Amino acid sequence: MKRTSEDGQSKLPDNTALKQQQLPAYRLQLSATGVLSCFFATGVFCLGMGIILILSAKSIKEIEIKYTKICGNCAKLREDATNFDKECTCSIPFYLSETMQVKGEREEIQAYTFLFTVSSCIQDVGNCAPFSKSHDGTPIAPCGAIANSIFNDTIILSYKLNSSIPIKVPMLRSGITWWTDKYVKFQNPSSINLSSAFAGTTKPPCWAKPVYELDGEDPGNNGFLNDDFIVWMRTAAFPTFKKLYRRLNRIQYFIEGLPAGNYSFNITYNFPVTRFKGEKSVVLSTLTWSGGSSLFLGLVYTVTGAVTWLASFSMMAVHLTLKDRKVLFIQQ
Amino acid sequence: WGSRTLSRACAGEENWVDSRTIYVGHREPPPGAEAYILQRHPDNRIVSSKYTFWNFIPKNLFEQFRRIANFYFLIIFLVQLIIDTPTSPVTSGLPLFFVITVTAIKQGYEDWLRHKADNAMNQCPVHFIQHGKLVRKQSRRLRVGDIVMVKEDETFPCDLIFLSSSRADGTCHVTTASLDGESSHKTHYAVQDTKGFHTEEDIDGLHATIECEQPQPDLYKPLGSENLLLRGATLKNTEKIFGVAVYTGMETKMALNYQSKSQKRSAVEKSMNVFLIVYLCILVSKALINTVLKYVWQSEPFRDEPWYNQKTESERQRNLFLRAFTDFLAFMVLFNYIIPVSMYVTVEMQKFLGSYFITWDEEMFDEDSGEGPLVNTSDLNEELGQVEYVFTDKTGTLTENNMEFKECCIEGHVYVPHAVCNGQTQAPCAHMCMREREELFFRALCLCHTIQVKDDDDVDGPRKSPDSGKSCVYISSSPDEVALVEGVQRCVSGRVCPFKHLRFPLFTGEIYLFCKGADSSIFPRVIEGKVDQIRAREGLRTLCVAYKRLVPEEYESVCALLQAAKVALQDRERKLAEAYEHIEKDLILLGATAVEDRLQEKAADTIEALQKAGIKVWVLTGDKMETAAATCYACRLFRRSTQLLELTTKRIEEQSLHDVLFELSKTVLRLSADMQDYGLIIDGAALSLIMKPREDGSCGNYRELFLEICRNCSAVLCCRMAPLQKAQIVKLIKLSKEHPITLAIGDGANDVSMILEAHVGIGVIGKEGRQAARNSDYAVPKFKHLKKMLLVHGHLYYIRISELVQYFFYKNVCFIFPQFLYQFFCGFSQQTLYDTAYLTLYNISFTSLPILLYSLMEQHVSIDTLRRDPSLYRDIAKNALLRWRVFVYWTFLGVFDALVFFFGAYFMFENTTVTSNGQIFGNWTFGTLVFTVMVFTVTLKLALDTHYWTWINHFVIWGSLLFYVVFSLLWGGIIWPFLSYQRMYYVFIQLLSSGPAWLVIVLLITVSLLPDVLKKVVCRQLWPSATERVQVRAGRGSRAGGAVPRAQWGRGALSRGPSRSRRCDRWKESGGGVVSPGITAEA
Fold it and tell me: Distance (Å) from the C-alpha of residue A162 to the closest C-alpha of chain B?
């Protein structure tokens, strides 16, 4: 290539690979063998994964008791907002036929599930309106609609060791929140004691107790650091949700988990759900590495694997017939 | 000096609608004239700019917000400002501001350039005659009636009536290259009554009135207006002239012939706008559905006002409709990301950056001229891949505009004067001489022309004889005459004397009549001679020479006849033609000459490639039919097998237009089944007849008929076209019912209107000035570069941008549809599914770069393959990748993926624990899970579509995924002090610490990608397109070390398309450069 004039040379574009669109590149080739083997591999992975997940989900034991209807009279009482200060408890006996065996290290008891509309209540945590100030102008702590609607039933599980005396099953209220929520995100205002820290504020309208009296026993579990409060403040994604209530404390009779036998739930019924046609239930469940007892993940994996295999087999068939035909064509 | 009326200046037309009266030199009207009616004429200012300093901002903003997209974003932005929404107004305001500002700056700059050009033109000095003195003034001060003096090589500042010239005979020569592209010199005559006025004083004493018609754009009308000098033409070979301004400023023929440069929109952009409207409908219906459902849902009071969330008094008292409307707007804002402003930014960037690949292209750089391609607008890059019709100028575009005498044939003997080429004068001439017929032949050539000789070699004549001792310049209105005379000069050792201007009879001792012309016009008049031995050969312009001996009596009668015709007052033209017809008969054929208008390098090859790519090539030229046809043969637009159909004035004179058209269409339709190639030749006059609107409407629509004929012709040649007619024909095709994409290419100023009219206008940076290049969308140094421009760059740009558009809509459906679904689970409370940071950054940073880089780098097939196989261009014809089918497929893919993300995560979260320690996840974790799956799926989908993996693609694709992960870790890993909420704190990390979350991410990505992969593989295997076959072949080839591929993967791969070996041959053959010229006669 001769470049005749100086002028031409100066105007001549650079001969770099980028500018000439000639960068060294790998061209993606979809060859038959490549695609097929890829499909087979995906199929194998999905099928294997699916089977493992189904098996592990099958090993989970779970008991769910819907107590809205069982505690019908309490529910009725709570429908009238003026009865908010009347206490109502109900007891639900049930029989655990098999031991809830612990395979891992821990066994969880999960509490309530209910239908609940989250409409507008979780709009924006930063924005507390309309629950930022009470009628007389004192600020509400904790503010906001979510805090106002806190779940305030108390559930106690008792075990009848022999026919007469019920033993209270020991439960841990720690470790039910994210560590970071409890120790970093949520903080009480610093003061000598909590009641003075929250002086000048008022409790949310639906609360029975002020925030610094949430846990009478453990001072470290009070105020904003209350585990139940933190759990509640992590708003669920859907109207039907499940939240962790307590974990089993594996001591005494319960080192191996919950033995078979007669149990009962003693529930202090405070949280009204029938007003918005909701339902509450309490769930006892074991956990595995893959979480709770949903077959969903395992099933979808299996189905995906099966579909992939089916597709790859049919593709292989098509490919082979086309190939045969072509060979014939060439031979002719 | 009595006052005279120079009414004949522009006269000749009976059907004036209106006429203007001009008083030369602004004299008072003559006393006897009718009442003086003041006629207002514009001054001589040329305005091509769109804005002024004051109206720029409002007008430009108005123009910009007329675009649907911009207006939409403005509305969304305002709504966000006014109502309380979960998304920040900055997220839509900032990109909009950016787009508007950048566009405004760009348009402002362009308009500033136009202002500058206008000013330069309006301020250039002009010589006026005022009170008998010469005054210099700015051109814009020129008014109708002013007397102007123009010197040699100056351009006329406005349309002038030619009063007098410095030449004794009252003539002047002009070139109208910038008007109609003809570089030849034309002779104009001063008005008879004034041609004696040679000095300023003389002129000043002139009292005259001019009656002429109102301005109209047709250059060739009034025909034979030898007194009218047009603005834009250049005075040549004449020292100075005087003229009076008749049309000024925007009323000059040049200005009327130029069309304003309008904004061109590509087909892709049009589809984009349609898609935009579809998505707008989707958006509005989504918002509407949600608003209605919200109120249905809230009709029960326990849902409207649950005990834990009671309304305040003011909320209760708000008007229901007002609330509903606010909700509707809030939903609109929530879902507004479905039409992302970032798409427009990305498209603009892609076009702007992508256009650099054209300027950078080394293969499109012309080393001789030192010019590279220019990109004047980047809006039309992808349109280059959609071209269906190419309209090309001939002179200077297809040909070099360089006539050369190639050979001649006398009495059946062929003479090839190599001397012309290599300067050896003697050899061929030796045996050529001394025969009577030869003598006559060369005499005829020497005499039958209109050449003028100019001894002064300072002046830029069209042609200089390169090796003659005398430096003389031939000037002629016909460049092939120059070539002939030069050729003859070198063959015959005769003196070259200044020839007198003669039409063609010349009288020596014996009286001969020589006649030179195209074979078609000569042959019918010939009675003797070896007619059958002269055959027009491809690529050569053939002229036949014949003669006739006249006896003196005959001569006398002929002279009388001609004289009578010349002085006839009515129908002079027709009478002259009849006289010539009478004289020119019973001729004896002498021989023929062949002149070649040399084709540009690889012009034929380029045309062939374009035709293989399914593009129809039309040649539009101002040239004569014979010359143009010869070029068409040379560049293989017409082949020997092509049957030519003529639709010329001559034919229309014989038959009515109606009959001709019907006959032609019958021929075409009848024989198109036989695979016969048709070529159509039409001339400007015939075209204007066709274009003329019918008054009665009973004759049927000629345009439709004409288009029907054109559609069936493989090549069309339009000759004798005025610039505006070129544009007209482009427009005709453009607006025909298929709405094909047109491309116009030309080099001269006469091509500008066509360049502006066509969807894509390409200027050839030629010798005739840069007007075409400046007004074009793209400029190339040579015609041959069109091939790479369309077949390679256009194809790639189209592939890239169509993927870009579809992918953008797809990824935003993926993005917003889950948000829509989520409203069904949160009581239609406008709860956002994703965090604000994710909402904002999704289109800006997480998924923007991979698609931008894809749209810059992607080569689905290699550049080499694209160039080698023009038929691949057919794969993307008719906007193939943006058809409804494809669009719906992408949209459904987006909806499917969104369903998979949302419900996959939903079933995962519903009623079960996702962690192994029983801790629960909230709504933000759910949103983050959906978002993570989405970012990965959408990016991997692009990765699957990428065929060309350079390190940049790797970097950008994996880099943006990595960036997403790192960003999420940081965003959730720190308590950001500036945020009023900490809802994302540790959400992402908690999500990743859960095993099932990983499993569900992998699963959902696989499931959402699977259908697309399956569809792709199956389609490739069962119905492979040509491109896909080439991809497979290329893959095989590279694996087998470049060996010729044998079997392909895919059905029917062997059946279609030319085989590789044949293609190679063709490549070699056409790579040989200039097509070898044919031979004129058979010996």
Answer: 30
Q: Which residues of B touch A21 (CB under 8 A)?
A: 357, 796, 857, 859, 863
State the catalytic residue, choosing from B146, B361, B379, B393.
B393
pLDDT the model gives residue A290: 76
- List CB contacts (< 8 A) between A53 and chain B: 999
- A14, A27, A310: best to mutate for the B interface, most B CBs within 10 A: A27
Give the pLDDT of residue B806.
Answer: 93
What is the C-alpha to C-alpha distance for residues B814 and B902, in angstroms, rounded to an integer? 10
B120-171 residue pLDDT tens: 888 888 888 887 788 888 888 888 888 888 888 888 888 888 888 888 778 8
Q: Which residues of chain B have pLDDT under 50?
A: 1-17, 223-224, 419-434, 456-471, 492-507, 698-699, 1040-1083
- Cβ of A304 within 8 Å of Cβ of B909? The answer is no
Strand segments (E) across B875-1025 = 948-949
Bridging pattern class, strands B133-138 and B125-130? antiparallel
Residue ranges of the alpha helices (H) in B191-319?
Answer: 200-204, 253-257, 267-297, 301-304, 313-317
- A124 to chain B: which residues are within 8 Å by CB? 86, 981
Residue A225 DSSP code = G
How many CA within 13 A on the CB side of residue A330? Answer: 12
| Residue A149 · residue A123 · CB < 8 Å | no
DSSP A141-199: SS-SHHHHT----EEEEEEESSSSPEEEPPEE-SSSS-HHIIIII--PPPSSSHHHHTT
pLDDT at B1: 37
Low-confidence stretches of chain A (pLDDT < 70) are: 1-11, 30, 99-130, 292-293, 325-332
Q: Looking at the domain covering B403-422+434-456+471-597, what would its CATH class be?
A: alpha beta
CA distance B177 to B752: 12
Q: How far apart are CA B314 and CA B914, in angstroms?
A: 42
- Among A113, A272, A288, beta carbon nearest to B916: A288
Residue extents of the structural domains in chain B: 363-397+600-691+701-781, 403-422+434-456+471-597, 795-1033
- Active-site annotation holds for B393: yes
Structural element, H or E, at residue B996: helix B995-1022
Environment class of B455 (CB within 10 Å of its CB; exposed 0-12, middle 13-18, buried 19+): exposed
Q: Which pLDDT does position B767 carry in this prediction?
A: 66
CA separation, residue B707 to residues B207, B668, B684 (Å)? 52, 12, 15
All residues of chain B having their beta carbon less than 8 Å from the beta carbon of residue A307 are: 1010
Looking at residue B965, what is its pLDDT? 96
> Domain B363-397+600-691+701-781, CATH 3.40.50.1000 — does that match?
yes
Instruction: Give the pLDDT score at B1052.
Output: 35
SS3 B613: coil
Question: For residues B786 and B767, what is the distance between their CA atoms, to the nearest angstrom?
Answer: 18
Cα–Cα distance, B591 to B588 (Å, whole number):
9
Q: Quick check: A25 and B913 CB within 8 A?
A: no
How many beta-carbon contacts under 8 Å exist across A and B? Answer: 272
SS3 B648: coil
Closest-CA distance, B309 to chain A, in angstroms, reads 6
Mean pLDDT, rounded, of chain A? 78
Closest-approach residue (CA) in chain B for A311: B1014
Q: Which two tokens stand for residue B19?
A: 């006429």
Closest CA relative to residue B13, chosen from B160, B228, B259? B228
The C-alpha atoms of residue B527 and residue B530 are separated, in whole angstroms, by 10
Q: How far is CA A327 from CA A315, A321, B1039, in A?
A: 18, 10, 20
Binding-site members of B for ATP are 393-395, 481, 499, 516, 541, 621-623, 720, 726, 750-751
Put simply, the answer to whether A19 touches B360 (Cβ < 8 Å) is yes
